[in-house]
Write a structure and sequence with these properties.
By secondary structure, this protein is an all-alpha fold. It has one domain. Helices cover 76% and strands 0% of the residues. The chain contains four helices and no strands. α1 packs antiparallel against α2. The protein is elongated and about 65 Å long. 18% of the residues are buried.
Length: 106
């Protein structure tokens, strides 16, 4: 839900700006992924999940969403990407990470 909120807010901001349809037709291929990763970084920060974990989830979700986008529509791809992102990050278990890990043998 956090990722969906950030993406939704950013979408609202981009639509409100006087960019025009030409901007999204010409630069949507880069604007979308940059926005997706930016929102993912914010989500990692808010949910206190390691950035690497979240970025891997963002890449996996982005690939799945892009495949659906090519077959169906942008909105269907976005829904799939959000679902894959949520499912992937839901597997993070903070209790499985040792905070005081000392790699030096004793």
């Amino acid at each position: 839900m956090v990722q969906a909120l950030f993406v939704g807010v950013l979408f609202g901001i981009l639509v409100a700006l006087p960019l025009g349809d030409d901007f999204f037709e010409d630069y949507g291929w880069i604007t979308g992924p940059v926005a997706w990763f930016g929102c993912s970084l914010l989500t990692a920060r808010v949910l206190d999940i390691p950035v690497g974990y979240v970025l891997f989830s963002a890449i996996a979700a982005g690939v799945c969403g892009a495949i659906v986008l090519l077959v169906a529509t942008h909105w269907a791809g976005m829904v799939v990407a959000l679902l894959v992102f949520a499912a992937s990050n839901a597997t993070y278990d903070p209790d499985s990470v040792e905070e005081d890990y000392d790699p030096a043998p004793r």
